[in-house]
Amino acid sequence: MxxxxxxxxxxxxEGDSIKVTVGGETVDVCCDDCARALNEAxxxxxxxxxxxxxxx
Length: 56
Known about the structure:
The protein has about 55 residues and is of the alpha+beta class. About 30% of the residues lie in helices and about 20% in strands. It contains two helices and two strands, in the order E-E-H-H. The protein has a two-stranded antiparallel sheet with strand order 1-2. The model has no long low-confidence stretch (mean pLDDT about 80).
């Protein structure tokens, strides 16, 4: 039997997983916290707030 692991924390996923799209690829995570962590880690480097702070 194949076990799924969380793409963010590498824990074994028991039951349902949450699907998150990162860089055009769909991955499984175990919880909302891991989903948010992946989205923040792969956010574009130039966000509107970052551009505003840098004077761009």
